[in-house]
Amino acid sequence: MSSRPTTVYAAGAVLWRMIGDDIHVLVIHRTEHKDISLPKGKVDPGETLPQTAVREIREETGIKVSLGVPVGITDYIMPNGKQKIVHYWAAEVTPKAIQKSKFVPNDEVAALEWLPLATARGELSYEPDKEILDNFAALVREGITQTFAVIVLRHGKATSPSEWRGEDSTRPLTERGLTQAHGIVRTLAAWKPKKFISSTAVRCKETITPTAKALGKEVTLTSKISQDSFEAGTADVRDVVGKIVRKRKSTVVCTHGPVAPTVVRELALATGTPRSGALDQAGLLDTASFTVVHLSATHPSSGIIAVETHESLL
């Protein structure tokens, strides 16, 4: 009796930039397959999908990117009978990133080509790629290609209150929690956050610091999103969220399990986004897990563009 085919996971992106007055997207001409596709690649052991997307884009195109809004998932059967599931994000390419690219034709990718949307769709070899490009084109029509991310992060596994004699806010991460804090660095870095905001609780500071340090950023501490303030009725999540939305810079907010749903809810309120079960669910996070809320950088009234939640692998 034959075993069930293994599912292959992969990740990639629609790379885009302005050339003149028009948006162009990048397609790759693959050497061995002699086809034209969007850049993507298989997940390496221990990788998360966002990590894979950033790594594969750099390997195939030489371009370093930060991820934008998710633009869809393709699911198809490969010629060898295995199922392949590919997650895609949009990713704006800056002139600086292009200048720094060291791409040369190789055994995997023969050429890179920037094309207008309609032209790119006609050139792509596979229908699933065209569907992803259609999803991106819908965002272009709505004028919401430029986005920023608000990453709502719950702290890692902390020492149990029953095992801690000090104040609750001083409870540190356990060994597992510290491992989680370091384990999420490369995944969080996929969005290249510019600002880091944390509850004043030690367990939150210890969770967010490795990523901030890796990106050369400082952490802003505030009791306005701490669990102590939340339970005492003195928290001010709305103030913190309002400032993030106004500044329109990708930001990590590290807080607590009971507070995270309110952060997501305030993001919805600040952008006029109707409440939904999916949004409510996005605020319910396990330790070291996070939800990425994508907002338009140019059209604030567009509301929340997309939401994605990532669980800790540790």
What does this structure look like?
There is one protein chain. The chain has 314 residues and is an alpha/beta fold. The protein has 2 domains: 8-142, Nucleoside Triphosphate Pyrophosphohydrolase (Alpha-Beta Complex), CATH 3.90.79; 147-310, 3-Layer(aba) Sandwich (Rossmann fold). Helix content is 32%, strand content 28%. It has helices at residues 49-61, 95-100, 117-123, 127-142, 175-183, 185-188, 202-214, 227-232, 237-247, 260-270, 277-282, and strands at 8-19, 22-30, 36-37, 40-42, 70-77, 83-92, 109-116, 147-154, 195-199, 219-222, 251-255, 290-296, 304-310. The strands form 2 sheets. Strands 1, 2, 3, 4, 5, 6 and 7 form a 7-stranded mixed beta sheet that branches. It has a 6-stranded mixed beta sheet with strand order 10-9-11-8-12-13, sandwiched between helices. A hairpin with a 7-residue loop joins strand 12 and strand 13. Helix 9 crosses helix 10. The longest helix has 16 residues, at 127-142. The two termini are 34 Å apart.
